[in-house]
Please model this.
Amino acid sequence: MNNHELTKQAEINRKRLLEIVYSAKAGHIGGDLSCLNMLTALYFDILNVDPANSEDPDRDRFILSKGHCVEALYVTLEAKGYYGRELTDTLGKFGSILSGHPTIEVPGIEVSSGALGHGLSIGVGMAIAAKKDGKSYKTYVLMGDGEQGEGSIYEAAMAGNQYKLDNLVAIIDRNHLQISGNTEDVMALEDITARWSAFGWDVKTVNGDDICAIVETLKGIDFNNGKPHLIISETTKGKGVSFMENVAKWHHGVPNEEQYATAINEIECRINEL
Model:
């Protein structure tokens, strides 16, 4: 896809996200919306994955470490063709394989995740395995910024540097809000760039609300520099729904009927303009 097509696909995915969260009456919609552009760029332009050959040993690996934002991953996998709308529509229904965190029962999901702080450690293991097996696949791990308070992340960060895992890409969805409020009030993270650089990582910052910037940054990664890679994706919590943007209470929340109609209308207007 070109950047215009990716931008439109992200809006289509955004509308679908609103639909399933509203129907399920549950979801971490604020963080879903902030990472949706990144997921769209990854699955539709960057990752070497194929729904028709989902067990390909040479496929790229993706781990959603901030697993509570699984709804964004569900709609992305649906749009990519891993399964149909009939499965996604079961979210929140009795007996559905779709739960509030990623599980390996769902096509396209590599690992059961969501216990915050674990995703990067798993990604390090996958990246080491690729090196030992002489495989060229890359491993991508998407973390939350509130998740950065977990100590296991920094153990994984040290290991990534120790083993020179230049086939590993960690991404922080830096929307500045977690369930308790602003990250800098709850557990200050800055200076993220200096911290991860000190761990020996190749660090880049990108406007995560801009598909073009995301693609350019991801395609600019040097996978032969002997360093693991960190992308700080500066995003807006609740991106794309005006009354949700930068509002902490939408970390987890379901719009009422009027709010849902307003959100869908906003997104449809942008889709039509594209």
Residues 85 and 109 are 17 Å apart (CA to CA). The longest helix spans residues 3-24.
